[in-house]
Amino acid sequence: GKIGGQSFMIIGQQKGHNTKTRQFRNFGMANPEGYRKALRLMKMAEKFGIPVVSFIDTPGAYPGLEAEERGQGEAIARNILEMIRLKTPIIAVIVGEGASGGALGIGVGDRVYMLENTWYSVISPESCSSILWKSWDYKEQAAEALKLTSEDMKRQKLVDDVVPEPLGGAHYDRDTAFANTGQYILKAYNELKDLSTERLIAERMDKYSKMGEYKE
């Protein structure tokens, strides 16, 4: 696809907008084949020198037994490894839910942005609540503890910036939301396009190596 006249390899997750389409899209939970397909497209983009844009909206990778049998964990891990060393710019945008490995499987990027009202976390609040309290009733407390909002993520330097949404949210004014997101994508691309392959990969690896805090 093209944004502002610039070609991009566009990869994304779809949830659907009603019960029928959500069932068809598996509620945005990709199977291993989905991650492998995304990787094939990223490798194609690398071959032809096309930058990659990834739109993330998932409650997590599909957790079913059949997905595990077909290598769900390996598919996500492989994507993370290959994206870290992909020889073309990668720009990731969280446009809804960004949960767990399901998001990370297409979420490694030179620039990572979040729409203002989205969230990004190691686990969904519902799943966290069910593990800690054996019930989904405490999902609000879990969400607060996880610090998963766009402001939290930017403060912790886990994302690069927050894309402002129109009043009421992106779904109330899609054209403005598209335009705002496109501006951030093009700005990122212009910052990255002239970097050598070696520097691009080195800066990407350095970006992720610096994430997180620890105490000895």
Q: How would you explain this protein's 3D organization?
A:
The chain is of the alpha/beta class and 216 residues long. The chain has a single domain (2-206), classed as 2-enoyl-CoA Hydratase, Chain A, domain 1. Helices cover 47% and strands 17% of the residues. The protein has helices at 19-24, 32-48, 65-69, 72-84, 100-104, 125-133, 139-146, 150-155, 174-192, 197-209; strands at residues 2-3, 6-7, 9-12, 52-58, 90-99, 111-115, 119-121, 161-163. Strands 3, 4, 5, 6, 7 and 8 form a 6-stranded parallel beta sheet that branches. A hairpin with a 2-residue loop joins strand 1 (2-3) and strand 2 (6-7).
Give descriptors for this structure.
alpha/beta, 6-stranded parallel sheet, single chain, two-stranded antiparallel sheet
Outline:
The chain is of the alpha/beta class and 216 residues long. It has helices spanning 19-24, 32-48, 65-69, 72-84, 100-104, 125-133, 139-146, 150-155, 174-192, 197-209, and strands at residues 2-3, 6-7, 9-12, 52-58, 90-99, 111-115, 119-121, 161-163. Strands 3, 4, 5, 6, 7 and 8 form a six-stranded parallel β-sheet that branches. Strands 1-2 form a two-stranded antiparallel ribbon.
